[in-house]
Amino acid sequence: MIFMLYFIIILYCLGIIFLIYGFNKVNAIDYIGLTPKNKFSIIVPFRNEAENLPILLDSLSKLNYPIELFEVILVDDESEERFQVPNFRFQVSIIKNIRISNSPKKDAIVTAMQIVNTNWIITTDADCVVNKNWLLALDNYIQLHDVSMIAGAVTYDCDYSFMHHFQQLDLASLQGATIGSFGIKKGFMCNGANFAYTKSFFKKLNGFNGNDAIASGDDVFLLQKAIAQFPEKIHYLKSQNNIVITKPVNDWKSLFYQRVRWASKTSSYQSTFGKGLGVLVFGGNLCLVLGISFWVLGLVSFPNIFLLFLLKFIVDTVLIYKANHFLNKSKIRYLILSSLLYPFFSTSVALYSLLGKYEWKGRTF
Question: What are the residues whose beta carbons fall under 8 Å from the beta carbon of 210, sequence distance 6 or more?
Answer without folding.
Answer: 221, 225
